[in-house]
C-alpha cells in the first residue's frame, strides 16, 4: 500500500483586532522561579510572523528576523494602532517578567500591554517606554490579578498610535516568563474515564465503550438506566496501553443489552460515563443537521431567519455591497495575466474564512451529490427528498440535497475561464480578522490562476451533475455536461499546471503536484455520464483503475482517485463485470484493514498514517474511511462492515480520549469554539457558537498553530486537541470534512432502521435506461453461513421489458417472470461473497426496476 500523501493542511491567519483598555497601574512583584515562556515565536526565528497580528491600518513585515510594523500617522490614541499576540495564558496571583527589544525609524513612545482581548477588555499590566532609532532592551515585572490559565481571551499587545507622522516600529526577542502552570502539554484531564458515544447506540449493533484504567485485571461495570437502576453488568477486558492515545484502556462490551431508551450511563467503580441513548433517532437528526451546515456556508445570499433562526441569520456576503468589494467582477491576482473579470457570486465559503476553493468545493459537492445518487440506486432516496432541509428551495419539487449541492456546482461552473481551464480559487487579498461576518469583509477579492487540478475537479463534478439532473432539469444538465467536456479537453491540453504553493495570503494555497488521480476521477464521471469511448479508454488505461489508489490512508481533496472508483462501482456503466467486481473487491480489502485497526485501537478511529501521527483534518479522514466500510457493506451485505461504520461514528461522537463529541450540538460535551469567522462567541459574546451538526477537524499531532504549539507539546496523537477558536489546525471546520460526515450520517441513518435482514441472500439491481431499453447489472451476495454450489435468481419486471442479451448467467423469460441461472464458472459462492451478472432489455413503455428477488427459493433483501 502506498503511504498517505502529505498532510492536507493549510495556514490560516487568526488576527483578532481588539482594543485593550489603558487604565490601571503597573503591578510589581518577583519573577517566578519557573521559566515558563508564554509568548510563541517571540524571536521570529520560524521565518514567519505567525501568530502576531496587526490592527487596522498597521502592516506587519518580517525584516531581518524582526517584526517591523508600518504604523500610519494621524491617529489620536496610542491604542489606535496595534500589534499583538492572542491566547497568552496568565494565572491570578502569579508574577511575570516581560522583555523585548525595540526601536523605531522616528523616536516615539509606545506601550506594552497585557490584558483581555474581548469585552470588557480588563487590563493586567501596562508599561510605557520611549523608543529611539537605536535598538534597546526593555524589561518589566508585574503580578496578574486575572486568571487565564489556558490562554482563553488574554493577549499581549503593543500600542503604537497617537502620533502625527507615520513611522516604522520594529520589535524582536519578545518574552513573557512566569506563572506556576506550564503552558504546554497540560490542558486538563478529560472529565471522564468511561468514554462512550455521547449520543447513542443503534439497537442490534455492537455497543462498546472504553475505560481508562491502569488495572491489569478485569473490572466490574454496570449499565444504569435514567432512573439509576442497574439493567446490565459485566467485566471489562484489559487491552494495555493504547498507542494513539497513550491511555491504559479496557474494553466494555454491553452489546447484549438492546432495550431502547434514553439517559443510560456506564459505571465502573467511582467513574461514570456521560449519558447516552439506545436508539437511532439521533442519526436521522445528524443526517439533516450535517447537510444543513452547507446552507449556513452559502455565499452571495442572505441566510434567512425562517430557515436557521434569528441567532444564525445574516445578510448576504460578497455581493458588491459596501463594505464588501464583492464577487461580481473579480479580477485576477496581481502577476496573473488574464485580461478579464469573472462573476463568481454564490458557492460555499470553504471553512472559517471567506475563501472559495475549487479543489475543496469539488470533493465536497461530489460527496453531497453521491450521498443522493447512492441512495437513489439503493432505493432509499425518499429520506433525501424535497422538504427535508430548511432551505429556500424546500418546496420546489427537487430533492433538497440536490438544491443545496447545486448552489456549489453553479459556482464551480462560474470559475471556468474562457479557454476552458478553471481558476483554482477566489478569496481576500489579505487575511481578514477573526471574527468578521461575510457582509462586513472589506478586503478586495482576487482570482488565483487556473490550474489542472481545479479544472479536473470541475469537470468531474459537472459530469456527475449532468447525469443526476438529466431527468430533473435537462437545460442545466446540458450546461454542466458542456462545461465538463470543455474543462477535460483544456486539462488534456494543460496537463501539468500546478497551483502556486506560495499563494497562501488571504486564503490557503491548496497546491497539488500529481494529477493522475484527478484525470482518472474526471474520466470516470464523464464516461459514466456519456458512455463515450475516449473517456472509457482514459479510465481503463489509468494506473488508478480497479481501485489501485484506494488504501488505508483514504482519500481527500488532493487524492481523489477513489471518488472515480466509487462511481464506477456504484453506477451502471458498461464496463466488464469482472472489472467492476475487482473495484468492489478493493473496497472490501481496505475495509478489512480498517476493521483490523479498529480491533487494535482503544478508541476505534479507523485512522492510519505511516508515522502513526494524526494530520490536519483527521476527523474528516475518519469520516471518509467510514464511507469505505459503508460501501464494503453495500457491495457484500456483510454485517461486520455495517458494524464498523457505527464504531467509527462512536469515536467522532465521544468515544475518544478527549471526552469531546467532535460534532457540534451532539452529546453532553460537544466542541463549541470551532475556528470560524462568524461562529465566534469565544471572542465576541454577541456572536453564536456553531449550529448542530458541524464536524471539527480534530486531533493534529503536528501542532500547526500557536495555540496548539503553546498548549499541547508532547501530546499523544489522539490527544492533540483543544476546543479553542484560534487552534485552527485542530478545530477548524470545512465543507469537505462536513461532506464526509453528511455522507456517512445519511448512510448510517438509512441502515439503522432495525436489525439487518436474516442471513440468506442480497440482490442489488442497477440499471441505465434510454427511451427504448436499458442495461441492467445484478449483484447477488450470499449472506448465509453456507456456500452455494450453484444459484438461481428469480424476479418479475413491473413493465414490458424484454431481455435481448445477457451475460454471466443463463437468462430465461416467461412473460414478466425472469430466471437467471449460474454458469459452471460462477456457481460456487462462499458465505459473504458476491457474483455479478447482467443483461440488456428492450421496452416500448414505462421502465420500472424490479424490487423483489429470490435466490434458490429464498426471498432476498
TrEMBL record:
Enzyme class: hydrolase
Entry superkingdom: Bacteria
GO MF annotations, alphabetized: cellulase activity; polysaccharide binding
Catalytic reaction equation(s): Endohydrolysis of (1->4)-beta-D-glucosidic linkages in cellulose, lichenin and cereal beta-D-glucans
Annotated region described as Disordered, given as residue ranges: 182-201, 838-861
InterPro entries with a match to the protein in the record: 6-hairpin_glycosidase_sf, 6hp_glycosidase-like_sf, CBD2, CBM2/CBM3_carb-bd_dom_sf, CBM2_carb-bd_dom_sf, Cellulase_Ig-like, CenC_carb-bd, Galactose-bd-like_sf
Catalytic activity, EC: 3.2.1.4
PROSITE patterns, alphabetized: CBM2, GH9_2, GH9_3
GO biological processes: cellulose catabolic process
Coiled coil: none
Keywords assigned: Carbohydrate metabolism, Cellulose degradation, Glycosidase, Hydrolase, Polysaccharide degradation, Signal
Name of the protein described by the UniProt record: Endoglucanase
Organism field: Saccharothrix coeruleofusca
Amino acid at each position: 500500500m502506498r503511504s498517505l500523501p502529505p498532510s492536507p493542511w493549510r495556514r490560516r491567519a487568526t488576527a483578532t483586532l481588539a482594543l485593550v483598555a489603558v487604565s490601571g497601574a503597573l503591578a510589581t512583584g518577583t519573577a517566578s522561579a519557573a521559566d515558563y515562556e508564554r509568548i510563541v515565536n517571540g524571536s521570529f526565528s520560524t521565518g514567519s510572523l505567525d501568530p502576531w497580528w496587526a490592527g487596522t491600518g498597521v502592516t506587519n513585515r518580517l525584516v531581518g528576523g524582526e517584526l517591523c510594523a508600518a504604523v500610519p500617522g494621524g491617529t489620536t490614541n496610542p491604542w489606535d494602532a496595534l500589534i499583538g499576540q492572542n491566547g497568552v495564558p496568565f494565572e491570578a496571583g502569579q508574577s511575570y517578567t516581560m522583555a523585548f527589544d525595540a526601536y523605531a525609524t522616528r523616536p516615539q513612545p509606545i506601550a506594552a500591554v497585557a490584558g483581555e482581548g474581548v469585552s470588557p477588555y480588563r487590563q493586567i499590566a501596562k508599561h510605557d517606554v520611549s523608543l529611539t532609532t537605536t535598538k534597546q532592551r526593555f524589561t518589566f515585572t508585574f503580578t496578574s490579578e486575572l486568571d487565564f490559565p489556558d490562554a482563553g481571551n488574554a493577549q499581549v499587545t503593543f500600542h503604537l498610535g497617537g502620533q502625527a507622522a507615520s513611522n516604522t516600529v520594529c520589535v524582536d526577542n519578545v518574552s513573557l516568563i512566569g506563572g506556576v502552570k506550564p503552558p504546554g502539554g497540560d490542558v486538563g484531564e478529560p472529565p471522564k474515564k468511561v468514554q462512550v458515544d455521547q449520543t447513542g447506540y443503534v439497537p442490534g449493533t455492537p455497543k462498546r465503550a472504553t475505560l481508562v484504567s491502569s488495572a491489569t485485571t478485569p473490572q466490574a461495570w454496570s449499565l444504569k438506566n435514567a432512573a439509576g437502576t442497574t439493567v446490565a453488568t459485566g467485566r471489562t477486558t484489559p487491552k494495555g496501553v493504547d498507542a494513539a492515545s497513550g491511555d491504559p484502556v479496557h474494553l466494555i462490551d454491553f452489546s447484549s443489552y438492546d432495550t431502547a431508551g434514553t439517559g443510560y450511563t456506564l459505571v465502573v467503580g467511582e467513574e461514570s460515563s456521560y449519558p447516552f441513548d439506545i436508539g437511532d433517532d439521533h442519526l436521522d437528526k445528524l443526517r439533516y443537521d450535517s447537510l444543513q451546515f452547507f446552507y449556513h456556508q452559502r455565499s452571495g445570499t442572505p441566510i434567512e431567519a425562517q430557515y436557521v433562526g434569528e441567532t444564525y441569520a445574516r445578510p448576504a456576503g460578497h455581493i458588491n455591497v459596501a463594505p464588501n468589494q464583492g464577487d461580481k467582477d473579480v479580477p485576477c491576482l496581481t502577476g496573473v495575466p488574464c485580461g478579464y473579470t469573472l462573476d463568481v457570486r454564490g458557492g460555499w465559503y470553504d471553512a472559517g474564512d471567506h475563501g472559495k476553493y475549487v479543489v475543496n468545493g469539488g470533493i465536497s459537492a461530489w460527496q453531497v451529490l453521491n450521498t443522493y445518487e447512492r441512495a437513489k440506486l439503493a432505493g432509499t432516496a425518499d429520506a433525501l427528498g424535497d422538504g427535508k432541509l430548511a432551505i429556500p428551495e424546500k418546496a420546489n419539487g427537487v430533492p433538497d440535497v440536490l438544491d443545496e449541492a447545486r448552489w456549489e456546482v453553479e459556482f464551480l461552473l462560474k470559475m471556468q475561464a474562457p479557454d476552458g481551464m478553471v481558476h483554482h480559487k477566489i478569496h481576500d487579498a489579505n487575511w481578514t480578522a477573526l471574527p468578521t461576518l461575510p457582509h462586513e469583509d472589506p478586503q478586495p477579492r482576487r482570482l488565483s490562476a487556473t490550474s489542472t487540478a481545479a479544472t479536473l475537479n470541475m469537470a468531474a463534478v459537472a459530469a456527475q451533475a449532468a447525469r443526476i439532473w438529466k431527468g430533473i432539469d435537462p437545460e442545466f444538465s446540458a450546461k454542466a455536461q458542456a462545461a465538463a467536456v470543455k474543462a477535460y479537453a483544456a486539462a488534456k491540453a494543460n496537463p501539468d499546471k500546478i497551483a502556486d504553493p506560495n499563494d497562501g495570503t488571504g486564503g490557503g494555497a491548496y497546491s497539488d503536484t500529481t494529477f493522475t488521480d484527478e484525470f482518472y476521477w474526471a474520466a470516470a464521471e464523464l464516461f459514466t455520464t456519456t458512455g463515450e469511448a475516449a473517456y472509457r479508454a482514459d479510465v481503463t488505461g489509468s494506473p488508478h483503475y480497479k481501485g489501485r489508489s484506494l488504501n488505508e490512508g483514504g482519500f481527500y481533496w488532493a487524492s481523489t482517485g477513489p471518488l472515480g472508483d466509487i462511481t464506477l462501482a456504484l453506477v451502471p456503466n458498461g464496463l466488464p463485470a469482472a472489472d467492476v467486481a475487482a473495484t468492489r473487491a478493493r473496497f472490501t480489502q481496505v475495509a478489512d484493514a480498517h476493521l483490523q485497526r479498529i480491533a487494535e485501537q482503544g478508541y476505534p478511529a479507523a485512522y492510519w498514517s505511516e508515522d502513526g501521527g494524526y494530520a490536519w483534518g483527521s476527523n474528516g479522514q475518519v469520516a471518509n474511511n467510514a464511507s469505505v466500510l459503508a460501501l464494503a457493506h453495500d457491495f457484500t451485505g456483510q454485517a461486520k462492515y455495517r458494524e464498523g461504520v457505527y464504531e467509527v461514528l462512536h469515536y467522532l461522537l465521544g468515544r475518544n480520549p478527549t471526552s469531546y463529541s467532535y460534532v457540534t450540538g451532539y452529546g453532553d460535551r460537544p466542541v463549541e469554539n470551532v475556528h470560524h469567522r462568524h461562529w465566534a462567541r469565544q471572542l465576541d459574546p454577541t456572536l453564536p457558537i456553531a449550529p448542530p451538526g458541524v464536524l471539527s477537524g480534530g486531533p493534529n499531532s503536528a501542532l500547526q498553530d500557536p495555540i496548539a504549539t503553546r498548549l499541547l507539546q508532547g501530546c499523544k496523537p489522539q490527544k492533540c486537541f483543544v476546543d479553542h477558536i484560534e487552534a485552527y489546525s485542530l478545530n477548524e471546520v470545512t465543507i469537505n470534512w462536513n461532506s464526509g460526515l453528511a455522507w456517512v450520517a445519511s448512510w448510517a441513518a438509512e441502515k439503522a432502521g432495525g436489525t439487518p435482514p436474516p442471513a440468506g441472500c442480497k440482490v442489488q439491481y442497477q440499471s441505465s435506461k434510454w427511451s427504448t431499453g436499458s442495461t441492467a447489472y445484478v449483484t447477488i451476495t450470499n449472506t448465509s453461513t453456507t456456500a452455494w454450489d450453484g444459484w438461481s435468481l428469480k424476479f418479475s419486471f413491473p413493465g414490458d421489458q424484454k431481455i435481448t442479451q445477457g451475460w454471466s448467467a443463463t437468462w430465461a423469460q416467461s412473460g414478466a417472470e425472469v430466471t437467471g441461472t449460474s454458469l459452471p464458472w460462477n456457481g460456487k459462492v462462499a458465505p459473504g461473497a458476491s457474483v455479478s451478472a447482467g443483461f440488456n432489455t428492450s421496452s416500448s413503455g414505462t421502465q420500472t426496476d424490479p424490487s423483489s428477488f429470490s435466490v434458490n427459493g429464498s426471498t432476498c433483501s
